[in-house]
């Protein structure tokens, strides 16, 4: 199980990303638009830099929904390999059979 503080920090980041997504996208569109004047693009870039760092989507890290483990994460299932193996062994995941040879 991951530290509670790390899991909560990730939840806080996720909330900030969702809160600032529209504003961040609008500012990025202005900053990248070549047809706009240079000073307007520069001002948009400065406003973008003043937004909270944790509101950027690249600061998010995938974590297991069950345990909070950040490594060996399967995107399709939203869980780590260890949680997947435990649930598979218990027969909780349809179609998954424990393998042995």
Give structural notes.
- Belongs to the universal ribosomal protein uS14 family.
- Part of the 30S ribosomal subunit. Contacts proteins S3 and S10.
- Binds 16S rRNA, required for the assembly of 30S particles and may also be responsible for determining the conformation of the 16S rRNA at the A site.
- Keywords: Ribonucleoprotein, Ribosomal protein, RNA-binding, rRNA-binding.
- This is Small ribosomal subunit protein uS14.
- With 101 residues, the protein is mostly helical.
- It folds into two domains: 1-61; 62-94, Ribosomal Protein S14/S29 (30s Ribosomal Protein S14, Chain N, Irregular).
- Helices cover 50% and strands 4% of the residues.
- The protein has three helices and two strands, in the order ααββα.
- It has helices spanning 4-32, 38-50, 81-89, and strands spanning 73-74, 79-80.
- The chain has a two-stranded antiparallel ribbon.
- β1 (73-74) and β2 form a beta hairpin.
- The longest helix has 29 residues, at 4-32.
- The protein is elongated and about 65 Å long.
- The two termini are 30 Å apart.
- The model has no long low-confidence stretch (mean pLDDT 92).
**Treating each run of at least 4 consecutive H or I residues as one helix, how many helices?**
3
Mean pLDDT: 92
Measured as a percent range, the helix fraction is: 40-55%
Strand composition percent: under 5%
**Biggest beta sheet attributes:** 2 strands, antiparallel
Distance between the termini: 30 Å
Task: Give the class from helix and strand content and strand pairing.
Answer: mainly alpha
Integer count of domains: 2
- The sequence of SSEs as H and E is HHEEH
Cross-sheet strand order for the largest sheet: 1-2
Question: Using only CA atoms, what is the Rg?
Answer: 20 Å
Q: What spatial form do the alpha-carbon principal axes imply?
A: elongated
The stretches of 5 or more residues where confidence is low (pLDDT under 50) are none
Number of strands: 2
């Amino acid at each position: 199980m991951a530290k509670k503080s790390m899991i909560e920090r990730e939840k806080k980041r996720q909330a900030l990303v969702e809160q600032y997504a529209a504003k961040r996208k609008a500012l990025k569109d202005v900053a990248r638009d070549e047809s706009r004047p240079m000073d307007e693009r520069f001002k948009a870039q400065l406003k973008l830099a003043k937004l909270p760092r944790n509101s950027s989507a690249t600061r998010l890290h995938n974590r297991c929904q069950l345990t909070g483990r950040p490594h060996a994460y399967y995107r399709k299932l939203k869980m780590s390999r260890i949680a997947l193996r435990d649930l598979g062994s218990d027969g909780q995941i349809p179609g998954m059979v424990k393998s042995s040879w």
